[in-house]
Amino acid sequence: QVQLVESGGGLAQAGGSLRLSCAASGRTASTYSMAWFRQAPGKEREFVASSNWIGSTYYTDSVKGRFSISRDSAKITLYLQMNSLKPEDTAVYYCAATSSRTIRPKYDYWGQGTQVTVSS
Question: How far separated are the first and last CA of the chain, in Å rounded?
Answer without folding.
Answer: 40
